[in-house]
Amino acid sequence: MTFLHINDKKFDDIQDFINFLEYEHAEFKMPSNLQIVATISNFESIDYFINSLLKYGFSIEKEFGKLLLISKMFLEKKIFFYVFFDDRNNVPLFLTVARKTDDIPETLLNYIDRSRDISNLWITPKVMKELKDSLVDKYEDLMINYFSAKRNPNFDIKAEYRPEVARSIQYRGDDGKLALEELEFYYGVLPKIIEIKLFEGLWFRIDNKGIITMKKGDFNTVFEIIENVIERVIQIRDAIDESKYIIRRVGVNKQFSNAIQTPWSMILPSGIKYDNIPDFCRTIQSDEWGFTLLEHVLLNGSLFFSARIIDNNKSSIFDITTTGNKIDIYPVEKADIGSCMKFYEFIVENIDPQAIGG
Amino acid sequence: MNPAISSLDYEGFIQKSSLEERRILRKLNDEWKKYYEPVARERLIENIETDKKHHNLIKLCAKAFAETDLSINSGYEFYFAEPLIEFGHIEEGNKSFDLFLFNESNQSAIFIECKTSIPTRAKKILNEIEESKRLIVNKLEYLSNIIGLQIKPERIEYVLCVYDKDSRKIIDSLNKKAEKDEKNRIIGSELIKLWIYRPHSQLIQLYQNHIHNNQILTEMLLRGFGEDSLRSQFELPYCITTHPYRIIKLAIIGDCYTKNLHYENTSEPKIITIDTILAALERNISIGISQEQKKELISEKLEKIIKYGEKYQLFEKINEEEIRLICRGNDIQVVKNNIESKFFKNWIQEWSDSEAKRKAIIEYKKRSGIQQLKDY
User: Fold this and answer.
1) Does B73 lie in the same domain as B221?
2) ipTM of the complex as predicted
3) Which entry of A206, A331, B87, B278 is 20 to 30 Å from B189 by CA?
């Protein structure tokens, strides 16, 4: 369903679009099931982005400057999305009222999972906690009425009770703000999904894949939050962009060529330990993460671990090497942002929540 | 094991036997097959692990010269892997080193041999290196032509790189060899320089009593060159001599099949063209010969790899241009796991069956007092 009444307007700046949603569009009732899917990409321009959408089978229904109305058939019905391509930071922002249970996963999320050069806006547990803490500080009356949170015993995060236990919690209740603080303190969990209600008229749910379900208005604040998360995630994208794969020629006639891989790195303050490796190998290949460990080398008793990894969905390949406190990620032919971001999220959720791109 | 008796003998033996004798032989064969299955599994895993670790050591040595301070300051660059491998199959005993480094400014060369499993008597390893050195000396003109500069014989150095745990055995053997050479007044037998990879410290170090002709190289390698000083690496996923199953896994499944799944709009991604595999091997194998020779050598290698894969029913050649993977599922992880399980199962089956047949005949002979197979 096309739920915005745009006529022939053109948007060149995200702020124009936000203003349109906030003020000009206020006369229309905002749909109660609006989803905003924030992503991050490496598309050089909107044309590359459009090509990628077409290649996957989306149709471009209409262009409103940098805002596109696109659709894809699923179970004999057309699923519509508005998408704004913010070319300041190459961030495509999707808006839809399609069903979150099957329509969105089968079309948009599948596209993000399988296509090159685009990634979910992964929000790490640490960033989610910081985001929650900053909103709590800013909005005195803020309520959290739902959250899910997780603890991985490998984490170097304090827990008063049985820190060695892996646990996950789903909580519903108007006292969610306090409950989350208590559970963070006593059980050492970190949030993955939070539903936040601001009495100023904003009510939304945000999950760790950058999907925001709007329950009640105020686009300005929501886009501010998205912008804030994007700024942090872009640091990782910049680190990934540092990696290179070049063919180097040597010899008096430059007759010998070899591929040189320059990695991007993740610094792990808690470090990866020899005993973590079997878990690492098992979890990374689970359905949740969808990687294949093609081959790995672990030198007995030392911390040297190297592997060739394939992202099952994107078919992109990369090599990793770690010596404990740092993981180097080497591109094979070309680094894919989606595979790299997913690998970063895998490390943050399973090995070290404090991991940073470096 | 008695290599003089083969599984063919077993079949011949069975044909000439009475029903009762056949029953006994088959029973013996079944029993020994069960015995040999775990032996085969250990052997296969050990072979593949050794191959992986050997290759890992090669990569670590090459990495030290991937646009690093060591490479820039010493002037040595990594040129290619397995120098003179093209002569490997021409004559028995032709052995090649693993890596070739060259310093253009003074035409000095370093040949590196990496070893991962050193026998108690490391003399065998040193003898092998002597053979590799002989090939270098014999083919120096040929190699100089390939490089386009004359390699100066007096500026050639040979390096053996081993894991720290094996270094003592090599040092003892090197010392013994030096004593013997001195006693026999052998001149010109240059000492091999030892590099030691210390995994706990993540360093490659030159053995304390050794020095390189290049002072900077000596100083930097004595300090140790490790992960902290390294960033880039040469890709080098496999070499010509890599275990054929690892080439199948890395090139055919990991590279070609994965690309088929993503790029090719094909309903049968398991059909892979020989040209695609050749292109993958050419791209990934580092070798110091002309493009045409490389194509030829790699084609020969691929022919062997395809025969190997067919033998263990990992894929079939459907025509002169294509092969098809034989396994269930399409997902890359499922395909990799299914091919791996099948390879392990069939390899173990084949090896243990062949060993069991030999053993069954020997045992049967012993029991029935037959001295020679032909006596039967």
Assistant:
1) yes
2) 0.91
3) B87
